[in-house]
User: Fold these one by one.
Assistant:
Number 1:
Amino acid sequence: MKLSHSPLLAQNLPAGRSRFMLFLLMAGFAALLVRSLYLQGVNTDFLQQKGESRYSRVLELSATRGRVVDRNGDVLAVSTPVKSVWALPEDARLTPAQAREAARVLEMDVRELNRRLGSEKDFVFVKRQVAPEVADRVAALGLPGIHLQKEYRRYYPAGDVTAHVLGFTGVDDKGQEGIELALEPILAGKPGSRRVIRDRRGQIVEDVESIKAPQDGRDTVLAIDAKVQYLAYAQLRQAVSDHRAKAGAVVVLDAKTGEVLALVNLPTYNPNNREKLSGAQLRNRVFTDTFEPGSTFKPFTAALALEKGKVRFDTPVQTAPGRLSIGSATIHDAHPHGVLTVAQVIQKSSNVGAAKLALSMTPDEMWQMFDSLGFGSPLRLGFPGEVGGRLRPAKSWRPIEQATMSYGHGISVTLMQLARGYMAFARDGDLLPLSLTRLDAPPPAGKPVFSAQTAREVRAMLEMAVQPGGTAPKAQIPGYRVAGKTGTAHKLDGGSYADKYVASFVGFAPASDPRLIVAVMIDEPSAGKYYGGEVAAPVFAQVMGGALRSLGVAPDAPLRPLLVARNEPPAKEEM
Amino acid sequence: MLRTNLVLLLVVVACALGAVASNHRARKLFMDLEREQNRAKELEVEWGQLQLEQSTWAAHARVERIARDKLGMRTPVPGQILVLEAGGNPAGPAQGARP
């Protein structure tokens, strides 16, 4: 059948009707065209974005905090991921049985748990930083509204031994004390992010772009030697408990490089468990507490007198009758001596002798020496709360003050400054900047303070001080020649000198070619003995002896000076 | 004409399938890479934990306690120390050394 024969077509339709249909169809097409133009052209960015958000994700990439290791590579601080348990109180509707179970797994009180979950807030931490096993068990409970979040926690395997050197980080893994704060820019990692495409099952199938690459914190190698550090800690703890002291501190420096090999403070704390912390435990006394150094300052006075050519090593100084009046004040010696040489003034630690040496110099000369030794200004090692001690301008010194400063009163220093000051004697008169991190390059040239000749002569005086007849025979170490000076200072208590003491000892060894400087400070020994030679010197000897052995420093003396010091005739054998 | 078109159609289909296959392969490889990278990260974490464990076991306080209490070790007294010099001949108070 042919279409043209259809009776329907034979009918004549009005022309307007078909044109109207055509118009409708065209209008429909035009509407589609406009709409597609609108979607493709005008609105495309918005739609693309919406589409992408269905499959692409921005992932946060966490960065880890750098490790802290000691100079031999032993780990001192490391961050490791832990989980924190958090909850949306709105969703967390636990049955009493579930709550009990959760509290048991988390090792916390049920009431405490319920109190947190009953909070008005939108988000609460139930418990932060739990062990991975605990986190797994919490996840296994499948409680509603309870979630886990990955966080980093810092661990300090050496615990209280290195507490003050390292400091600690807060719950957000940011440094708050010590090295952790001082080296925060190096240690901290910078988290990054990247955009990826995920498939239906949540697997990442394509990397779109890396928005910001994460930067892990750099590992830091400290100058600290964990072995020496432990040795200093153990010996100091023993001494502080034996002498019932309030506090104590030890610093060990490498005289060749200026590196800090050990830094110990007591009382200390466990950085891994900081629940009950007191200010006294946190104090990094080596940097933040100043004390009047007492007789440990006399060698500086003697060195300046030698340097200025006022005296020679063996110039006699009259110290009888053990008193010296300046203005209305009088300086006393603990034991009166007669005529002493300059060397003996140091050996016997005569206040009168030191004061006489000081009065032969101008205040300005003394101030300049103290200043160039670094007293009065902070060391700026980056430790929080570093102080510079008290060194008043020379113009305001009265003669009595100049005299007392010669033996370390009326001036205050930190133990670290004192140890560094002795570096001028341990080296040939120059001072190196201190370093808390291991130096891999040779240290920079030192800043000269004294001439090599002066340094050598003071070394000889300091060696006499630990020999029989000196103030600190207990500082002797079998096998090594030792040089050092005791200090016993009255403590200032409310403006006047009280019956409390700071016993200190600073010295170096081997005296023939000094390698280590050890400074010991013991605050308020109250078990009867309080002289630096009896309280601090034995700690020095133990720490120094052990450290020299562990660093493999060759002995420079016969191995039996302690026996020699008793009765036997002096041994002539030399190595 | 028709034959050329058919051949071209086949070529196009083959290319399209190839593109799909290689894209799939790329995604699979990428997933593998991702997995391995995660593993590397986990191993890194584990290494840190092992280091931590090692330094806990090797803590000087613990070593000293074991050496002193369990093994009965002690620091030699001066007379027991013998210093050997690089040359080889023992120096020092050899005569004073006790066994």
Number 2:
Amino acid sequence: MKMHLDEKIWLFLSFGMIMGFMIFTGYQAVALGMGPPSHKETIDPRNVDQTAPFDKPGIKQIGENEYEVVMTLQVFSFTPMEIEVPAGSTVHFTLTSKDVVHGFQVANTNINAMVMPGHIQKISQKFEEPGEYLVLCNEYCGAGHQAMSTKIIVK
Amino acid sequence: MQPALKTTSIKQKTTQVLGISLEDARISKSYLSVAFIALLLGGLLGLLQGLNRAGVLQLPPWLNYYQVLTAHGILLVVVLSAFFTIGYFYAGLSHTLGGLLPKVRKMAWIGFWMKIFGFVLVVIPILRNEASVMYTFYPPMAASPMFYFGLVFIVLGVWMLSFGAFTQVANWRRNHKGEHLPILAFFATGVFVLLVGATAFVAVEVIFMIIPWTLGWVDGINVLLARTLFWAFGHTAVNIWYLTAVSAWYVVVPKIIGGTRWNDLLTRMVVIPLVIMNITGGFHHQIIDPGISESIKYMHVFMSLAIGFPSLMTAYAMFRVFERTARAKGGKGLVGWYKKMPWGDVRFLAPFIAMVAFIPAGAGGIVQSTNQLDQVVHNTMWVVGHFHLTLGMSVVMTFFGISYWLVPYLSKRVLTPAMNRLGVIQTVIWTIGMVIMAISMHIVGLFGSPRRTSFTTYGDFAEKLGWNPYMALVGIGATLLLLAVILQVYAVFNLMFFAPKGTTEFPIAEEEAGAEKTPYWTERWGIWVVLMLLVVSMAYVLPIVDMILNAPPGSPPFKTW
């Protein structure tokens, strides 16, 4: 089969582009630790309230400028509802759902994770800029899905 | 052997000269009618959603946003696409393989009624607000069991049609030993192989996991496993509709512009990897799921991106065919040759715009399948913009372009210049509407606006984050789209029942003169299917075993709407 030279060049570039995406993705995920939220712990979805750490959802300072937020998601709210941290702090979220699949997204940040019943999800973010951040559920979860939101206040 | 061969090839010739038999035409016309009625209803519901999200329409409680959205998704992603694909390929099989065998016709009708029965079972609970679970129906949201039984009948119908197609193809191959399957039938084989492969996953999810659970026989469900099985189907399904469109790009469009087909071997080499590597693409819908390790996710980035390669081959092939044809007609200059293309012919214009749309659509797809970039846009309006480009433009506009010759071919009527003009206007309106809508969806998605969410201000955040103007544009796009839908549906039924009688050809481009003979190994479908199964096992065995062994206690059913 004869192929035109320009087709060979095009296919070579195509292959190179796909490999480039692979290499960048791999480099960011492995070397820079920017892999997607993939926590593997599980939990009994019917006993979330009795299982540590979700028996005491809330915010806790765990270091200088470092906070841990233990949060449950349920139709159609987040517990705890209001979170306040000083600017420049890193927040580690530990999340699970008490009912259906929810999404945990904070607008204007890279926080975006699926939160599923039976699974514990973790995601971290450093909040540099002071202000109010919208937290919303981005997975359809029922009639009140559009009302499922809260905010993070960074002072 | 010899007499059988003679009769089929004589039959093949008569079909090609006299046009499709009435019985075969009736099958395809029925499928296309259902497809375009689904387009009308789905488009109307799309307008309701667009206006709701633009903030100008409040939906009543008896027809709420999530009911409308569930129906919109199912009507357009499952009904329109599947019925069109089947109607088109059955006509193609009839045309290129010498008419459908009587038993294949029977299978096509059984499949048709199974699918219709399934859809009735699916639609009733949606209308009664007992199945507002979206096209993805993620457990532990649980719809009425009737919804899932409906899905089972739809899948059984698809299998019936696939086996009908395989029977037809196998019969042809038996009578044409050593010959290459005609190219359109080759695409059809790939499409039906993928349909069986993809629906097998969702069948396991629905039959073995969801139905026993909604009936209360088991009290918990593995949420992650169900999602995984769904996406092995869900993503493949949309790629099947895309492969259907691609078949027309390679086989039909070159004929319409008066040219010859792209290299036969390279064409078949696009179909084969799309079949082998397709099903594993589904995992990229789960890049930010818990319970799947980063290394598995990384492997799946590779598997998803690999499907991009045949599409990049297609991009080259199409523009090369255009240029070659235009230059043969006297087109000159580095880009001046484009003037020689038949821009006023809707049968070319619509699929051409569809192809152009696939450039940003495919690029967006590559972006979305990479881990970190996906995390930025996952479940935002960006994704909705993406699949309105891929499905709403690349696939559906190709289907529209096909309808302007396929419907008159089936009904033994002709496309009049007036109807062609209407088609061009329809194409332009649809393009403008879709471009406005898809661009605004992509932008507002980058700003964080979530998908599948009815109108909400989030306090004053929607305003502060600058979402509102883009949502208004989505509403405007949806309005234009409905206008184009009405024109399109009018055109289809006019061409089916009222256009002037006459002969319309089934446009299939020939190979270039003096083209090299394609080697026979392309026809080894057994090997392609085995390779497909190998790639699927490579992708899925490890994570699925992990999901089963390390499963949390199951979730009970919830009705949260």
